[in-house]
Amino acid sequence: MSTLEKSKYELSTSCECRYCDPCGMGTESLTCDECQGETTPTDWCDGGCWEYKRDWLEEDIERFLSHHNNPSSVTIAGKHIGWQRLHGFKEVNADHKSIFAALTFSGDWRLAIECDGENFIITRYSHDEPTGATFWLIPTTEEEEED
Ligand SMILES: [Zn+2]
Ligand SMILES: [Zn+2]
Fold first, then answer.
1. For the chain, what percent of residues have pLDDT higher than 70?
2. Does 20 fall in a domain?
3. How far away, in angstroms, is 91 Cα from ligand 1 center?
4. Domain total for the chain?
5. Does any domain span residue 42?
6. Cα gap 67→5, rounded to integer Å
7. What Cα–Cα distance (Å) separates residue 117 from each residue in 52, 59, 93?
8. Gap from CA of 145 to ligand 1 centroid (Å)
9. Is 134 contained in some domain?
């Protein structure tokens, strides 16, 4: 199995949806795939244009967790967080929803994700983090099993 294949992509709250009026086609490119005409940005997107990238993120988080023997929690370490450029740690449940929630907030942000299974690094850009805040996941090692 090639579990250490590296993936790299960006996830952003800004919409990439465009629309071709004559064809009635939705797209993410500047020109229509059908008529080659110019497309216009839509103003009615529900975020569906980046939903598939959330699936990639979900798969990568699962890949990372299974590579590390499925810990029950992970520590998210971060540096240069917010306008004060703070450093910090946060322990969350080891599932993609908790991890995604810990990395995002309501408002505009862009996440640059790098995962090779072994390592998981996220750089977040936002209004207060123009140069990017860096986060990485550390699997929590269980010291002793509770019986
Ligand atoms: Zn969209
Ligand atoms: Zn068209």
1. 94
2. no
3. 32
4. 1
5. no
6. 12
7. 19, 10, 18
8. 46
9. yes
Name residues with Cβ closer than 5 Å to ligand 1, which is an ion: 15, 17, 45, 49
The tokens describing 146, both together, are: 């509770």
The Å distance, Cα 13 to ligand 1 centre, comes to 9
Residue 121 is classified by DSSP as E
Q: How many CA atoms lie within 13 A of 34 on its CB side?
A: 10
**41 inside domain:** no
Question: In terms of residue numbers, what domain contains 79?
Answer: 7-15+48-146
Tokens of 82: 């917010």
Q: Which amino acid makes up residue 68?
A: H
Mean pLDDT by 10 residues, the chain (147 residues): 76 86 89 93 79 90 95 97 96 95 92 95 96 96 62
Instruction: Classify 75 as helix, strand or coil.
Output: strand
Single out the residue of 79, 73, 64, 78 nearest to residue 92, CA to CA: 73
Dump the DSSP string for 82-138.
TTTTEEEEEEEESSHHHHHHHH--SS-EEEEEEE-SS-EEEEEEETTEEEEEEEEEE
Tell me what pLDDT residue 145 has. 55
Contact 98, 90 (CB under 8 A): no
Three-class secondary structure of residue 107 per DSSP: coil
